[in-house]
Specification:
It is a single chain. It is built from three helices and eight strands; from the N terminus they run βββββββαβαα. By secondary structure, it is of the alpha+beta class. It has one domain. The strands form two sheets. The chain has a five-stranded mixed beta sheet, with no helix packed on it. A three-stranded antiparallel beta sheet has the order 6-7-8, with helices on one face. β6 and β7 form a beta hairpin. The longest helix has 10 residues. The two termini are 36 Å apart.
Length: 236
């Protein structure tokens, strides 16, 4: 904040930050099937859990998928809180804030956060902090070498007019109090994610997705998509 020269002196380079991307299943994101569900390599922010494209916006530039509103996109540096404290790599951390789906959509996965490995230009979708879309996501000092903490701010808007999503949920599930599910307001409250570096969600070590495992213990994202057939948001 004390720099007295022009901003151009701060720029050391530029270019594409993402050349490869992995989805919530841990699959390399690939071409979209224009005639039905994309069963392997779907970008789930645009689809339902089966890979059906349900985003309202048409893609006119030849791309298969799109991301938008990467709010709070910023760099989290390795061990920025002290020796061994914080992420084990430089990570560009961001999130997809919002998406418009088809008016008659019955189900969609939702919007995940993303961690980009700058050394390999690889993006990893993160489902373990839920898929509600966020306004801000930032690392917090954990004061401990074994853990990482991420603060996620809520996106406190209404659910929208996706009435068939609510209808489908009521057909599949029953609330504990016997009342039907209704369209929620203020759908993503603020939350804190705490991960233990190097561990799977069951506490074991695993070589799969070593970048996410050693930094955030976020390998559990692959489990979420297996059981997600419509948007589910939980309060922590």
């Amino acid at each position: 904040m004390n720099h007295e020269g022009p901003a151009s002196e701060m720029v050391t380079g530029m270019g594409e930050a993402i050349e490869h991307a992995y989805n919530l299943k841990g699959e390399l994101v690939g071409p979209r099937n224009p005639d039905g569900p994309t069963t392997v390599g779907a970008h789930f922010s645009n689809t339902d859990a089966d890979g059906n494209y349900v985003a309202a916006a048409p893609i006119s530039n030849g791309a298969d998928w799109f991301m938008q509103s990467l709010c709070s996109a910023h760099l989290e540096e390795k061990h920025q809180w002290g020796p061994g404290i914080g992420f084990e790599d430089d990570i560009f951390l961001t999130n997809e804030e919002w998406m418009t789906y088809e008016a008659d959509v019955e189900a969609f996965v939702g919007l995940s956060a993303h961690a980009i490995d700058l050394s390999t230009k690889t993006d990893y979708a993160l489902g373990s902090v839920t898929n509600g879309g966020f306004e801000k996501i930032v690392e917090v000092n954990p004061l401990h070498k074994d853990y990482v903490i991420i603060a996620i701010s809520g996106y406190n808007g209404s659910f929208g007019d996706y009435d068939k999503v609510i209808e489908k949920r009521n057909n599949l599930y029953t609330r504990g109090d016997g009342n039907p599910y209704v369209k929620p307001q203020n759908i993503v409250p603020a939350r804190i994610y705490i991960g233990k570096k190097g561990k799977m969600e069951d506490g074991t070590y695993h070589c799969l997705f070593s970048f996410l495992q050693k930094n955030l213990s976020l390998t559990q994202t692959q489990k979420i998509i297996k059981h997600l057939h419509m948007l589910v948001l939980k309060r922590f």
